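Each field is set out as follows.
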Amino acid sequence: MKIASREVRLKQRPRGIPDIDNFEIVEVMVPEPHINQVLVRNIYMSVDPYMRNRMGETKSYLPSFQVDKPMLGGCVGEVVDSKNEHFQKGDYVLGFRGWREYYISSGKGLTTLDPSIAPIQTYLGVLGMPGLTAYVGLLDIGGLKEGETVFVSAAAGAVGSLVCQIAKIKGCRVVASAGTNEKVEWLMEEAKVDAAFNYKEVEKLRLTLGEHCPDGIDLYFENVGGEHLEAAIFHMNTFGRIVVCGMISMYNNLALEAGPRNLPMITTKRLRIKGFLVSDHYDREPMFLDDMREWIAAGAIRWRETIVEGIENAPRAFLGLFKGENIGKMLVQVGSHKAPEVVNKT
């Protein structure tokens, strides 16, 4: 028997900032699984800034979303029917077929989750791609050392909030930038950063950053671009490192902006700037999960989630990323579920 399922499709490619009209909600019928297949009911799906680049036709590291086709993204769901010996009915699985309520899978790309470590949606956040991004970017790409000063932009987001906490665990001084006073309060009280400020309320970002980093910056974790990058370069210490994870302030630009005006400082300060993609580093996932289990059990990791309910509201949740509406990971709860008991809670 077929099941009715709603899915979100890209209706038209956006120019500049996307809006609701770029999406449409379509109802389809999902068949029963055949041999070696499973039927998954999504419970949570992820919306992420990188998806904006996939909505255009510009060649990138991932193929563009197709117009009039369902979009893709990370998701956590429950196996409701299985004809695959590797998955049982009731298993929670991590997949990449978000933006829909149900889907059929051969099992390729699905990962069975352990819900006893943390709530299942955290496998889309602190235990998932954003968490691994923070871990790899800070420790492997950035080469973090104890006692250093670390500056993090978009510090209350899914990646930045974990960067801050790992840096603290590793014995560093952390300065954080965010876009609302509520986020600043969370960073100070929960993430336990050493200093945080609302960049929207400062007159000159460069001066404010200098006040919080009187001894300079050893490592800057870049999530924003633009004025943040220019300010960070100005205050970087000699032989400092800049880890480029993303530049969300520039994703919706219709034309390229002028680069930072102080680029010559890269030479005089002998800075190292390196971009990275987490997809190149999945070999680090076992170590990442081992460390995270230990840190979560010790109460050293805190997280916040911004959860929007209903598949029909997924476009609104996605657009909210570019308005700063999220603290921590932005998620869409697609379907209801009875939360499994979690052994280690934060």
Notes: The mean pLDDT is 93. The CA atoms of residues 216 and 235 lie 5 Å apart. The radius of gyration is 21 Å. The domain at 3-125+304-333 is CATH 3.90.180.10 (Quinone Oxidoreductase; Chain A, domain 1).
